[in-house]
Amino acid sequence: MMFCAALFLLAAGLPPAARAADFQPLTRPATTEHRPGKFVWADLFTADPVAATKFYTSLFGWTVDLTTQNSQVYIVLSNQGKPVAGLVARPPASAKRPSRWIGYIAVTDLPATIALVTKNGGLVRAEPRAFPDRGVQAIVTDKEGAAIGLLQSTSGDPADSEPKPGDWNWFELFVKQPSATTDFYRKVAGYEVAPDLRSDRKNDFFLSSGGQARAGVAPLPDDPAEATPDWLGVVRVAGMDATLAQVAALGGKILVPPHAAALGSRFAIIADPTGGAIGLVEYVENANPANHP
Amino acid sequence: MKPTRKILLGLLLLLAMQIWSTGCVGPGYVGADINYGPRPWFGDGPWLDGGGWYGRGGGGGRVNVDIHPPGFRR
Fold first, then answer.
1. How is residue A243 annotated by DSSP?
2. Is any Cβ of chain A less than 8 angstroms from the Cβ of B3?
3. CB distance from B5 to chain A under 8 Å?
4. Is residue A21 within 8 Å of A151, Cβ to Cβ?
5. Does domain A168-291 have CATH number 3.10.450.50?
6. Cβ separation of B19 and A201 shorter than 8 Å?
7. Residues near A119 by Cβ (< 8 Å), separated by ≥ 6?
8. Which of A11, A36, A121, A201 could form a disulfide bond with A143, CB atoms 3.0-4.6 angstroms apart?
9. Inter-chain contact B67–A213, Cβ cutoff 8 Å?
10. What angle, rounded to 10 degrees, do the helices at A49-60 and A2-11 form?
């Protein structure tokens, strides 16, 4: 197995210092603090893990740890030493299918949450499974088909803090019926739902828990008609222009050019070379709302 | 292109092909399952495909998203 791990590292052009390890706990040292509703993890499901790893390590400076169990490899990507994401290979039959990022929200009682998912019109796509040092996790789709992970951590959930460049900054859900869908998440995950009063659309909402805004819900555009409901993870970057220049050089695509967003930030959406879509945000001005009483 | 670079690229290609054929990087390279850890976790399918609709319409390619760092209290 170590041979295979070494092959991967060579193919991805990564330093041999990347190591094989067990699953990494969400928080280290472990705590008993849980923050249900907080986005605590994200996995990229891709048919080309080598290309995806090259892209994200080059773009964000993320580092790689290989988790090996029974000859299977799971790639953990870390930002400044903090694990932030995983990378999972899809089977060859899916080689031409676009990759998908799936964010995981913290839950404290996964079986109960799963029961609420099915009761409220969602589907269980990946049954609850315990992973050593990580916890128990599952993947479901909401009533419109958007995929979301559920993770009951055994090491507690990370504290709320301002994201650094390379950290996840926000998650946004695009659906056809935001009001009905927010009701699903309120019932399943216990979110407080509030309208986004700054939006010119009356169909934008915040999902909050523990006094923190965790995610947004917005309507899908009418055009194109084939737009499908989807969660979009957004990573903070230090410099948008430099990052976007790298995107093209690394084989990615700019799907939505940078433009001004809330609180003096700039926002763009890109796709990695394997088709995984991800948002980028740069704090141009002082975009931390905590500094805007 | 320098010969050494060609050799290096060829080697990388061979390694990538070997990884693909042996599946040793590949959770999920057995059948159509996604392996996540020691054994298959769930079945792959179209539901797992990325949407990629961003930028194709929706107001001239713009997506109206508010970006809220943690710290925003509501």
1. H
2. no
3. no
4. no
5. no
6. no
7. A187
8. A121
9. no
10. 60
pTM: 0.84
**Strand pairing report for A192-195 and A72-79:** unpaired
B31-50 residues touching A, CB cutoff 8 A: 31-39, 41-42, 44, 46-50
CATH number (2.40.50.180, 3.10.180.10, 3.40.50.2300, 3.40.800.20) of A2-7+37-153 reads 3.10.180.10
Phi, psi dihedral angles at A120 (to 5 degrees):
-105, 20
Considering only CB atoms, B28 lies closest to which of A91, A100, A172, namely A91
Q: What is the C-alpha to C-alpha distance for residues A1 and A5, in angstroms, rounded to an integer?
A: 6
